Amino acid sequence: MCIVGLRESGMLVCTDGRGTFQGCEMDANQFYGIELQEGGNPLVTESKIHSNKQGSVHVYDDGLGTFQDCEIEEAA
């Protein structure tokens, strides 16, 4: 389990980055819970992404990602 909060963005996956994130909680970040860009393509499972100032998930500049069994809420 990982808890990521009180940062600019909880997680940034970029430049063709990969990874599996399971059981994470990303909340209370200044911008987004998770940002995906430049081919970043994680697998995020059983995670909660909520109460972030700008939004929960931000995908841009060819970012990708798979989310399974996650709770994703709007911005705070």
UniProtKB/TrEMBL annotation:
Source domain of life: Eukaryota
Pfam family, one: Beta_helix
Ranges for domain Right handed beta helix: 9-74
Protein name (record): Right handed beta helix domain-containing protein
